[in-house]
Design brief:
The chain is of the alpha/beta class. Helices cover 35% and strands 15% of the residues. The protein has 17 helices and 16 strands. The strands form four sheets. The protein has a seven-stranded mixed β-sheet with strand order 7-6-12-13-14-11-15, with helices on both faces. A five-stranded parallel β-sheet has the order 9-2-1-10-16. The termini are close together.
């Protein structure tokens, strides 16, 4: 298919969309405001020479599982997934931590009395993993391609994670493991559909793992850029787009932007109903990020936690629920839920020999720049790793305003492109059957504000690009130009 296309934004979804369009034969140009492609999947040496710090996303359960990334064969462009010895750990004040292993059987065995329930909850999804991922990483309002897999997953998905955890599990280890996975929804576990996140992230651990990219998350973006260039496309850096005239006369325009940026674009005459709907879009709980360079391993109270690539620091199910509810209500939690990544457990290249880069963020109220949040991240780490403060060689705090300044899509520190509660769980960004169409011919939305939402998997870009190509073919047929 001949023709031209422009993509605004070089995040994973924008780059994925560009690759799909370029592979279809279009001449594609990506316009990126920053000096480096990647959006929230970038890395830099912000903790000093020899360090690799993921500035945004760090661990990639749905990158390794992405149907698109697999089909593209990004390993040809240097992308390599590295797996830690333990997928994730959930330390507790009293008793041993919950440990999430690649092996479902080993995880269940270590959970003792809850092992059978853990297996029952996850086994069906793990057994149909490829079909489940294909269904889950796409628009929910559609005819499912794999109805059996979706039905198996759907039986587990609608419930609040807190209700599921209390109904199925007796130990705090199992409840904590499930609650930590569910907290990736950035919602209190009492909310409906949070069990979907708990089940999906747990099944991902057993099916394909939660790996990191060798050399940093930047490697994912670099591989997508390399594939785009291989198919004739290009990326223009330091090119902010403020008016659609800057990318015309491209026949297709795909916007890797959230609703706020879309509404701010000049030259985009959106239908009034669509514009009103975008203006009602809600952004959710924020992240306050803390990056640390340590002079050695984290002194976790239980040394097994040091082998985990991801650590959910929040305590019991009840404590996580309280912290998430406080953040959502606009109050800075005394003990926030903290997501920690120890990429060095899988990729020693992230820090000079003998040192460790520790990546962490706390869930805080939307737009909360209170510096106490950074201290509370350290307090939570000290709670389960006494003496960690004494190991800190360098520290960089990035509050919500800093995240937004670095990447305009992270509005108020919301890393998911918009809250995942209410209708926004299903209809993103507006209530309509075609989530990618803007109502302007040839202009489509492809960001995390569209299905399937946040995460570094490129599937929003993939689905938007496929929709755009279908629309272009139809328009050409109507105009008598053939299929293209």
């Amino acid at each position: 298919m001949e023709g031209t296309a422009a993509v605004v934004g070089a995040g994973p979804n924008g780059l994925a969309a560009a690759v799909v369009l370029a592979r279809a034969g279009l001449d594609v140009t990506v316009h990126e405001a920053a000096g480096t492609p990647g959006g929230a999947a970038r890395s830099a040496a912000v903790l000093g020479p020899g360090t690799v710090v993921d500035l945004g996303s760090a661990v990639h359960p749905f990158g390794v599982a992405s149907p698109l990334f697999s089909r593209l064969g990004l390993h040809r462009h240097g992308l390599e997934w590295l797996h830690p010895p333990v997928v994730a750990a959930h330390p507790l004040d009293d008793g041993p931590p919950g440990l999430l292993h690649r092996s479902l059987e080993r995880t269940a065995a270590e959970l003792g009395p809850d092992g059978r329930a853990w297996s029952a909850l996850h086994r069906g999804v793990v057994g149909r993993w490829e079909q489940t991922v294909e269904s889950a990483l796409g628009p929910l309002v559609r005819v499912p391609e794999h109805p059996a897999a979706l039905a198996s997953f759907g039986l587990r998905a609608p419930w609040p994670a807190a209700a599921t955890a209390r109904a199925l599990f007796r130990t705090e280890q199992a409840r904590g493991l499930f609650a930590g996975s569910a907290a990736h929804a950035v919602l209190p576990p009492r909310h409906v559909l949070t069990s979907a996140f708990g089940t999906l992230f747990g099944a991902a651990a057993h099916a394909t793992g939660w790996p990191v990219a060798r050399g940093g998350s930047q490697a994912i973006a670099d591989a997508l850029v390399a594939d785009l260039r291989e198919h004739g496309g290009r990326v223009l850096l330091d090119r902010p787009v403020t008016d659609l005239a800057q990318v015309r006369p491209a026949e297709l325009v795909l916007l890797d932007l959230t609703p706020r940026q879309v509404l701010g674009l000049g030259g985009l005459e959106l239908p009034p109903r669509y514009r009103r709907a975008l203006s009602r879009w809600r952004y959710g709980t924020a992240c306050y990020k803390v990056d640390l360079l340590l002079d050695g391993p984290v002194p976790w109270r239980d040394p097994r936690v040091a082998r985990a690539g991801t650590v959910h620091v929040g305590g019991t199910l009840a404590q996580i629920g309280a912290a998430e509810s406080q953040a959502r209500a606009g109050r800075l939690p005394e003990r926030p839920f903290v997501l920690v990544a120890q990429q060095g457990a899988a990729d020693p290249s992230r820090a000079p020999a003998g040192q460790q880069v520790l990546w962490a963020y706390a869930h805080v109220p939307h737009g909360c720049d209170d510096p106490r949040a950074g201290e509370r991240v350290l307090e939570q780490l000290e709670r389960f790793a006494p003496g960690v403060r004494d190991r800190v060689l360098a520290r960089v705090d990035t509050p919500p305003s800093g995240l937004q300044a670095w990447n305009a899509n992270l509005v108020g520190g919301d890393i998911g492109g918009g809250a995942l509660d209410g209708l926004q769980q299903v209809f993103r960004p507006v209530v309509q059957t075609d989530p990618y169409a803007t109502g302007v011919p040839g202009v489509f939305l492809c960001s995390s504000s569209t299905p399937p939402g946040g995460g570094v998997h490129g599937m929003a870009g993939y689905h938007a690009a496929r929709r755009a190509l279908t629309g272009l073919t139809r328009e050409r047929r109507r105009a008598g130009g053939g299929p293209g």
